[in-house]
Amino acid sequence: MGKNPLCEVSRHEKKYHAGKVLEHLIPIRFGGAKTDERNLMSVTKFYADRKTGMESRRGQPLIAWIETDNGKIPANREDIFKQLIR
Q1: Would residue 1 count as lying in a domain?
Q2: Smallest Cα–Cα separation from 42: which of 62, 23, 15, 70?
Q3: How do residues 57-78 score in pLDDT, each as one tens digit?
Q4: How confident is the model at residue 2, as a pLDDT?
Q5: Domain contains 36
Q6: Computed over its alpha carbons, how large is the radius of gyration of the chain?
């Protein structure tokens, strides 16, 4: 699972669960960078499903982004924790 085998969201909560999904913080369907590591995060299936559901309801990414030559990347990747941990 990429460079980090643990779910980054769980780890932020001081819990340690295996990351099962490599998630794009800014989804490709919204112009997210496909292969830029700054746009990738290892998460559990629970958090991947939660994030996808929230984005589908909003019709946009959950966090602010920066445009790069390769696509959008998170302006502040820590912002995803505020959205997913509630």
Answers
A1: no
A2: 23
A3: 999 999 999 999 999 999 999 9
A4: 54
A5: yes
A6: 12
Q: Measured at the alpha carbon of residue 76, what is the angle toward residues 9 and 31, in degrees to the nearest 5?
A: 95
Q: Give the Cα-Cα-Cα angle 65, 3, 69 (nearest 5 degrees).
A: 35
Which domain does 65 fall in, by range?
A: 8-84
Which amino acid does the sequence have at 17?
H
Q: What are the beta bridge partners of residue 74? A: 65
State whether residue 22 is helix, strand or coil. Answer: strand
pLDDT digits (tens, 9 = 90+) for 14-38: 999 999 999 999 999 999 999 999 9
Question: Which residue type sits at 4?
Answer: N
Distance CA 75, CA 61 (A): 12
Q: Into how many domains does the chain fold?
A: 1
